[in-house]
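INFO batch 0412 | record 1 of 1 | parsing
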Amino acid sequence: MNKVDIHTHILPKNWPDLNEKYNTHGFVTIEHHKPCCAKMMIGDKLFREIEDNTWDERVRIQECNNKGVNMQVLSTVPVMFNYWAKPHETYDLSRYLNDHIAGVVKEHPDRFIGLGTLPMQDTKLAIKELERCMKSLAMAGVEIGTHIHGRNLDDEGVIEIFEAAEELSAAVFIHPWDMLGKDRMPQYWLPWLVGMPAETALAICSMIFGGVFERLKKLRVCFAHGGGSFPFTLGRIEHGFNVRPDLVATKNNVNPRNYLGKFYLDSLVHDELSLEFMIDLIGEDNIVMGSDYPFPLGEHEPGKLIESMAELNKTVKEKLLWKNALNFLGLKESIIKKHHNA
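INFO prediction complete | emitting tokens
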């Protein structure tokens, strides 16, 4: 079957020393300390070690061939959002990263689809770059974080950007970053294991209760990592809405369950029972295959969980593996071409 991987991350092989360029500190730098490997550093602290499949599209294509992935949707690594920085700094970096992704897509249009990044802390600059992504760089949409340096996704400035995305028919992929409670989780990789699912649930609830989906009915949104903890706590969320509308329904009095099927979730949950539940809850038309390539917490064989589920027929598997992704991205099925290993 065809496969479109909605959730993959890419970086340039190198980028300027942003701390020096902007005369500040806190931006990620990169150190190529040995062949095919590099360190992402924040100050003198290691953020993550990465391999050449993070920046070398030839390696990516070979690994896609080996795993049977037709196309990857490329987005930046969330630590590069930098919503904490001065708007003109993030705007400048966004343009740099977006030009890089657009260049990779232009070189390999049959293998990659691009999502841009935006300086979300400044509404006008974000919309300006969104327009460039869609009109000049021919991207399918953008990737944004679950919050904008502490502002949730029901913030009026953020909603203005969503309005522009709807008007431009830009897909919006929402990825957790700068996780809730990270100061209480210094050990055991808990920000990624516990904080990320909570971050994504908060983002979904903010958009539901803030009336974003009610106002923008044509906005196409996908949440990473299976929507985090949201699908599995919806019963509690709905119950709270029913018993304390004075606290919950202050901006939107529509039951949160009514929005199931109004947004997409990726399939990255690593558990058959969880994915089966999500399909029953969200619907077979609203789950898209995502692997979080090339990082270790992702699905190392993209689509393997979907393919392994005997209870899913061929039609449903095709939707999850590629057709739903193209619907989310607003692309035609003709963009997909079969690729065979040499």
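INFO post-check: The chain has twelve helices and eleven strands.
INFO record closed
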